Structures are given as C-alpha cells and as structure tokens.
Amino acid sequence: MPDSLTQAIETRLERYLQREDSLADFEAWLVPETWDISPQSDRAAHELATAITLRIAEFTNGDWTE
Asked: What are phi and psi of 63, to 5 degrees?
C-alpha cells in the first residue's frame, strides 16, 4: 500500500498506462481522492493531480490522443 497520496496517484496512473484500468476507472478514482488537496499540505500530490487532470481535460476536448 502506498504511504503517500503522490505514490497512490503514481500507482494508479501506472495501472492506467499499462491498460490494467480504463481512463474512466482512473478518473473515477482520481477525482474524489484529490478534489480537496491543498498545495500547502501536499504540494507534490497537488501538482501531480493538477497536471493529470489538465491532460485528461485536454484529451477529452480532442487536443491530445491517447
């Protein structure tokens, strides 16, 4: 079990990248886990979650391919 939220995000992202989880599954996990992260309390997790959320939004908008 990951001992930090950053590690948990990385683990779940890896599962998606290895096609063990769908994008919908990954996003369904990511959003509730990270919606209230404060950059003051967990800067690394906040930055990682923000970057991933932006990429997902750009992908769903058609700006990126999978």
From this structure: -80, -20
Nearest alpha-carbon partner for 16 in 28, 25, 7: 25
**Band of pLDDT at residue 66, cut at 50, 70 and 90:** confident
pLDDT tens across 1-47, in order? 457 999 999 999 999 999 999 999 999 999 999 999 988 889 999 99
- Contact of 12 with 30, CB cutoff 8 Å: yes
**Contact (CB, 8 A) for 19 and 59:** no
Alpha helices in 1-66 (DSSP H): 5-17, 23-34, 43-60
Terminal Cα-to-Cα distance of the chain (whole angstroms): 28
